[in-house]
Amino acid sequence: MIKVQNLAKSFGPLWAVEDVSFSVEKGEFFGFLGPNGAGKTTTINILCTLLSPTRGEATVAGYDVVREPNQVRRSIGIIFQDPSLDERLTAFENLRFHAMLYHLPWRETKERMESLLSMVGLSGRRNDLVKYFSGGMKRRLEIVRGLLHSPQLLFLDEPTLGLDPQTRKYIWTYVRDLQKKEGLTLFMTTHYMEEADQCDRIAIIDAGKIIALDTPTAFKRSLGVGSLEEVFLKLTGREIREEDASEKDQLRDLHRKWIGRMR
Amino acid sequence: MPRRRISCGTFTGSGLEECANLRSDHNSSLGMELQSIYTVWLRDLVRIRRDRTQLLGSLARPILWLLFLGIGMGPVFHSDMEMPYLHYLFPGIIAMNLLFASFLSAISIIWDREFGFLKEILVSPISRSSIAFGKAASGSTIAVLQGLVVLAFAPLLHISLSFSSLFLLIPSMFLVAFTCTSMGIVLASRMTSFEGFGTIANFVIMPMFFLSGAIFPLDRIPTWLKLLTRLNPLTYGVDQFRWILYGVHRFPVAFDLSFNIFFSLLMLGLAIAMFKRSPA
Hints:
By secondary structure, chain A is of the alpha/beta class.
């Protein structure tokens, strides 16, 4: 489903991603685990055709990300790190626009939309402005939107960042449920160990390079430790550290304060 | 969940292939392009209906300028166009609202990009050109609506507005707005912070406005300044408005039109190129 070979991306003199290679099978739940600044989001952005690679190749669902971006886009759904919903529109309008952007036949899509909305428990809120949704509700709506066009592959970039543990649990219930029903392949980036533990295979990434790739169980067994936390410590000699807040993080906080949320 | 017939509405795995086949036309037709542009345009229009603050600003701005500058400068104003200053200023204030509204919509692109919704558009399978075109079209439409707000003051200032002048004014306003919006998109696509855009605003928007003949006539200024005004699309826009409203003009009307058409196409081309590079 995904094939990445010698992928590299530089921003001026800074190499965010350096010589990354991996592949993801159909139906797999694949994870990228690493601290902030490791290159996870850059990699996912390249695979989603939001960024073009400096070097290397990547194919998603059999299509090259550079040469056939629109075919890639039709085959994937994405849940971004920052909620990318339009807050001034209602839930319904957000989904309607999504359907228009993907040129979906409306009659069939409407049915699908209703089923997905009721699956995540948002049917009653479809005519409310997204501005008034809680973080968890927004994520749920994003899941509906990401799957509305029936993609084969779902990208999740730090999907539960900023959510409380309860909501996190619910989000994963929906996602796993939908994965089973739709036969989705999941590609996730995270720096939460418990999330990475759910994956079929994980790639541990740090400073733009993949340090190791294996199943969570194999990692723990081969290194003789009980948790991925310790796996990471053993492989990199460090804890997964918190980076200084970038300007973007500060803007994000400001945005949250301005927009606010009704809980 | 019971198995239903295979269609895009089911949750069965094979439903995915069925859906993919429905969308197997990888080359988008003109119809699809137009629909994409319409989608981008429509979303911005629906949003703006829910934003009271911008509409309020577009009302306050002309009131302030017309009131203070218009009335204040009246007694000291001399021009070979022989009209009261308020009348002279009026088309300039239309241009001002168009200018500000256009660049404001370009700022929304930075916001969109940083806080997500543009990503949703970028990651969808519509052509990059239709994104640029749709954004330029929606920004222009909103700017023209704000320009029309200024027109509402015409009867108050004893400026006569015939149906024919309105008929000519609106597309003329749209052309000016399209130019400014496309310029704004080009600048916005290079900016990553709001502060950066504020600086550009000061170095681009204000000079454009002051050097357009909106506020003062361009016949008695030094040659080097005159040159700058000749390069400014807003100059020709304001000249066009004055011709439509009062029949007076400084430049040949055909030249006004062609300069702006050329300039807007140039800017649109640049805007499309910007969207085709990796803008995220």
